[in-house]
Write a structure and sequence with these properties.
Elements (H helix, E strand, L loop, with lengths): L1 H4 L2 H35 L22 H25 L15 H24 L20 H38 L1
Helix pairs in contact: 2-5, 3-4
Membrane topology: Multi-pass membrane protein
Keywords: Cell membrane, Endocytosis, Endoplasmic reticulum, Membrane, Receptor, Transmembrane, Transmembrane helix, Wnt signaling pathway
Protein name: LMBRL protein
């Protein structure tokens, strides 16, 4: 219904630009994770351990300086939003979605706990994937499992593989559906 009620500008310009933006952010995050996997294989310093002397504001945490830091912030926000959307899209947690003007207190508490757990896991998630080296002043590098090469490597490979699989499946399914629709209209 929303697609039919949308203006032609939204349908022809807004939706494609939003889709390209999501594809670009997903592709960039997969690329960064793939480079992090290569770093893990070649250099032990790429492990997401704690930073001893974090000279905040004196040294850039990104190779590309300010642009890289801005890109890291954008990717972290993208991962946060996609985690929340993925969480509420899973069949197990769809009942937890709040309803307008009719959400019981237990459901509100469940949503608060879920969002707290997701937001607490985000710094460790982005550090383990190699998206950022910044510790967010929480010293998340103290976790013993962040020093285990096999866990970090498996986590990165799983993220890169599954995200690429989802991306290819979604794009190929959309292209296939459009081709079928185009061929069906002509024939």
């Amino acid at each position: 219904e929303l697609r039919y009620q949308a203006s032609p500008w939204q349908r022809n310009l807004g939706y494609p630009l939003a889709m390209l933006g999501l594809l670009a952010l997903t592709g960039i995050s997969v690329l960064i994770v793939c480079f992090h996997v290569l770093e893990l294989l070649l250099d032990d310093a790429a492990m997401p351990r704690g930073i001893q002397d974090a000279s905040l504001g004196q040294v850039s945490f990104s190779i590309f300086g300010s642009f890289g830091a801005a890109l890291q912030v954008i990717l972290i926000f993208y991962l946060m939003v996609s985690s929340v959307v993925g969480f509420y899209s899973s069949p197990l947690f769809t009942q937890l979605l709040p309803e307008r003007q009719d959400t019981p207190l237990t459901k509100i508490i469940g949503n608060c706990v879920s969002l707290l757990v997701l937001s607490s896991a985000l710094p460790v998630f982005s550090r383990t994937l190699g998206i950022t080296r910044f510790d967010l002043l929480g010293d998340f590098g103290r976790f013993n499992w962040l020093g285990n090469f096999y866990i970090v490597f498996s986590y990165n490979m799983g993220f890169a593989g599954l995200t690429t699989l989802c991306l290819v499946k979604k794009v190929s399914w959309t292209v296939r559906a459009e081709l079928i629709r185009a061929l069906g209209e002509e024939g």
